[in-house]
Each structure stands twice: as C-alpha cells, then as structure tokens.
Amino acid sequence: MIFYNAHSRAIERLYEDKATISRYTEYEDPVTKETRLELIPVYENQPCRISQRALGANTQTENVNQIVYETKLFISPNIEIKQGDVIEVTRGTTTRKYTAGEPFIYPTHQEVSIQRDDEA
User: pTM of the predicted model, to two decimals?
Assistant: First the structure.
C-alpha cells in the first residue's frame, strides 16, 4: 500500500518558489459589447519548484539576444493547469513568465514543461 499523502507532503517541502497561473478567458466588454480575451489569474502564489531542463541556446543576432530555454514546473496535482496557460514563477526576488505545455499528473505531484521566451 502506498501512502500518497505522506509522499506529497515530503515533495511539497521542496517547493521554494511561488506560481501564479493565468488563463485567457472570454469576457464581454460592458461598453462596446464585444467579446474579448483577457488574461485572468486562476491561481495565485501557489507553492511550486522549477528546474531547468536544458541550457538555453545562444540565439543572439545583430539586433536581439533572444532567450529561449525549457524548464520543468513541479506543483500540486490539485492545481488545474492547461496547455497554453501563462505561469509567472517567483524565486526569491526574481519573477519570470513562462508558457505551459501539457501537464503530466502523478498521484503526488504534477510536472509541467514550461517555456520561457524572452529577450535579453
């Protein structure tokens, strides 16, 4: 018999980061009556942990130094994350924005491939 609750608590002790998960949601503008998409936070300040999956490639050009690399997010399986969600992760005093891939859910946690696409 596996005690998933004990395993979950042990894993969650490693969570030192905080995540805010936002999702594009349709809403009707009260003035123009147009339907628009707006990025709405669905979870805020959720304990998590990020881990860099691979080193970023140097894609510097004459005009732009583009940052593209992939990390993995570890978070509670009770948090619903959908592919395409925008996730802001805060580690210490640094906050970075990522886009979620499809989550892989275990009984004790879930792993989500997240991509940072930014410019330096």
Answer: 0.80
